[in-house]
Amino acid sequence: MSYESQSGLNCSVLVLNKHYMAIRIIGVKRAFSLLCRDLAEVVSLEQGSYANYDFRSWCEVSQFRRRFEPDGHDWIATVNFYVAVPRIIRLLFYDRLPRNDVKFNRRNIFARDRNRCQYCGKHFPTTELSLDHVVPRSLGGKATWENIVCACTRCNVRKGGRTPKQAGMDLFRQPAKPRHNALVHVHLGHARYRSWKQFLDHAYWSVELK
Questions:
Q1: Do both 116 and 186 map to the same domain?
Q2: Is residue 42 included in any domain, yes or no?
Q3: Which domain holds residue 70?
Q4: Are 95 and 7 in a shared domain?
Q5: Contact 98, 21 (CB under 8 A)
Q6: What Rg do the C-alpha atoms of the chain give, in angstroms?
Q7: What positions belong to coiled-coil segments (predicted)?
Q8: To 5 degrees, how large is the angle CA 110–CA 116–CA 119?
């Protein structure tokens, strides 16, 4: 597989229900599976408005874009041609509303804190961050949104099994449960996902990552 195709497979696709409400984010393979089975269509931003394509039409449009806009898309190579990776697809037969819950897991905590140590305030790669109990478990602290924060190794060691006050350390921001999925903000930071913004209305920020 070419590097270009591998890069394309690493992209994310926003999924809308049939009423154009954002419901989740999925991988490219899953998106193409839905398109090939005629369970979804591509929604493409074109000169400020959105156009809809079934899979066959999208393949045809891709040939034109490959020729004239090769740098404007991520690509997947088939045996005979390239297909542009869609940014948004719409499910044709699914009308359920998006979930309103944000899962309490490591990925969402890192996203909420935006990979920033909540003690020194510096950004770090995920591999250099850990999760810290603000009130340590030894002192009765629970694993909750309000008591878990990202911390770099240095700050985590310095704090040890103490509260921030005992350690003479201040929190960068008081932890709380997100009202929406912070992973959406992470994606919107990339130019390739800016076409999502219109569909991510405040009432539908709870996009579940699958």
A1: no
A2: yes
A3: 3-99+182-209
A4: yes
A5: yes
A6: 21
A7: none
A8: 115
